[in-house]
Amino acid sequence: MDILPILSTLRRHKITAWLLILEIALTCAIVCNAVFLVSQRLERMNLPSGIAEHELVQVQLANIGNRSDAEARAKTDLAALRQIPGVTQVALVFQMPFTDGGSSNSGIKLDPQQREDTADVTQYMGENLLSTLGTKLVAGRDFRPDEFVNLDTAVAALHTGDLKGLPQVLVVTQALADRLWPGQSALGKQIYLGQGLAFRVVGVVAHLARPNRLSKGVEYSTVWPISMNVSQGASFLIRCAPQERERVLKSALAALKQLDPNRVVLQKRTYDEARHAFFANDRAMTGILVGVCLALLIVTALGIVGLASFWVAQRRRTIGVRRALGATRANILHYFQTENFLLATLGIVLGMVLAYGINLFLMMHYELPRLPVIYFPVGAALLWVIGQIAVFGPALRAAAVPPVVATRSV
Amino acid sequence: MFGYYLDLALRSLRRNKALTALMVLAIALGIGASMTTLTVLHVLSGDPLPERSSTLYYPQVDPRDSAGHDSDKEPMEQVSWTDGMNLLQAKRADRQALMTGGTVAIQPTQSALDPFYEDARFATADFFPMFGVPFQYGHGWSAADDDSSARLVVISSKLNDKLFGGKDSTGQMLRLEGTALRIVGVLGDWRPNPHFYDLNVTNYAESEGVYMPLSTSQDLQLAHDGSVDCWGNGGAGPRPDHSATCVWLQFWVQLDSPAQAAVYKEFLVHYSQEQKALGRFQRPPNVRLRNLMGWLDYQMVVPGDVRLQVWLAFGFLLVCLVNTVGLMLAKFMRRAGELGVRRALGASRRALFAQLLVEAGVIGLSGGIGGLLLAFLGLWLVRQQPASYAALAHLDPGMLLTTFLLALGASLLAGLLPAWRACQITPALQLKSN
Fold first, then answer.
1. Are residues B252 and B219 in the same domain?
2. What is the pLDDT, as a whole number, of residue A156?
3. Which residues of B touch A65 (CB under 8 A)?
4. pTM over 0.80
5. Is the same domain home to A80 and A216?
6. More confident residue, B407 or A81
7. Which residues of chain A neighbour B318 with C-beta distances below 8 Å?
8. Which domain holds residue A381?
9. A196, A117 in Cβ contact below 8 A?
10. Which of A376-380, B6-10, B147-151, B291-295 has the lowest mean pLDDT?
């Protein structure tokens, strides 16, 4: 196919051609970045939590008025929940991975003399937490019963600086261990909190994501031997087989209501529902981005169809003359296809530069990583294909122009 | 003349129905998307208290120890009990209020209603006059009530509807967390957006149902709700100790003139120096005094996703416009023969230009109307979203006007280049070639 005649024709429609190139370029740039944003959201929505997600239900209660027997009440509540058929584990916990609302976070240091914190970690608390969450221990051990202290005792101890009231040990995630002591075993290592309070690592879990503040390190989590009760904001976490969740949730609510009717249910849901709610905004944004991408591609494709149709109609006589001089239908078809290919190529080149620029802008304002190189060839191929599909109809119509047109005057 | 041009435009548009539809649809989609996102942005970045925001300030001081100290670091975003009380009692501003959030259990006397939880605000007396909170019945409380931890509450009109069927409930008792409190006031319609005075609750939260003196809430040991930031060996549960090294309260002041604001900032520096001399503060004075809008800006209240959506929508509009310009250009150029004849018959360039612009305007207007309908649809879709601000997404008259101006401006802009190009035709050449 000879390109020169195409170029000389395009030179006669400079502005229109450039507009088409510009449209393709803008579409290419926006779609590349939007698809990249979608992939980021999908990655976020599919982050592993490290827990037995499909086996957990949560019930959060609140007492009316202050009560002094919170500890004893917690024990009877837990015992009653364990009696429910199908329940394998029960715990009173303060937070769960990927949930909104309160979370306990703290800066930790590797050396008490350090001025800046080494990492910001979340603090999981609650008796029987690891086995209820179903988090896998990869090194060390779970807490012993005698290591637990109540939250109130711990806060008071922290306040007075009395080390005896504080827990002495903790469990960390593999991700945090790798961050703090790369290449070494974390077991037996010390971390420091506040003004030089030391704690010893006794166990490492494979995965355990934090509730929120994901930007500080999704899996920078610690687990503490601190027990909590309902009035301290803890909720019941119940583990059972996935198909039993609805029934167990109902029985649990009934059992808790029977033990003390003077409480308000703040939350009752499966963990899957909690996780679904946490990522609702990401899901909505993904939908919007995909919708805009599709709309952009359709508008661009229709634009190509419209312009190509115009050009075909405008060049009817020229096409007729070429056909009369011996050009085959295939020649005419290829002519328009090549023309579109050239325009698309220019648009794609321009679009890639633009895409890179938009990505730089987004990196500055939205903490986004750099656009992976793979997006460029894939984006180019996509636009080429769309261009060819869009131009095919008008090109076929051009090829169908009979040679006899050349002999007719308009 | 305009009528004739309009007739010509409609004829020409009718000749290529598919193409006209494509151009109108492209503009409508672009306008619809842009207006939807702009409206959301407009609603979210609005001024919660237009008449008062310029006189309301949020003082910040830095009570932390020197660990991790960097000179450029921002002071803490809330105040501790000690600092809050000190600043409140200094009474250096025209009005000042110290507050925090909570959640309280309400036990209705009617047996038909189960106990339920309601968001509460524990504040000092100036909260109501300072923020200009409207009252439907009764009034707020006085500084004397603060001092005596009076057992009284103010409730929202929504809660009043729920508990008392909307009747004047002042003087009645409200049972809350096991204590009976006398209702002294019922608020009118009040929902500032964003929830500026405490952004620890979701940014676009509804206003609270229950308001009571901060001192009363502390007397009753009601649990606090919101964020707590501690330093040193501080730590706190839902009922922070008053001497804990933690910040968990918000402090707002009203300063009626910029001069007073400057004086108040001076005072904050003095206060910090004094506290440092006493050994409570360890860092050099580090204070901020942002006004309401400055505080919202600093807190980046408008979600990043919303801004991103605006960018995306305008990118989309740009593509749609380029698309329309290209199609219109091709269309006008195709009619070169017809335009040539009109030129040869004596129509001036200006007349042709006007005629083509009318055609572009018709497309733009149709696109604008379509865009408006799409914007209504878009906003309806936004309201179905799970975000906390979703319910606020409504088109106001200002945005309605903006939509029309945007549509008309966009389409005229799109028509300008094609019309100008088409007018450059040399009539003789066009006539000859045919």
1. yes
2. 81
3. 105, 177-179
4. yes
5. yes
6. A81
7. 26
8. 4-46+281-407
9. no
10. B6-10
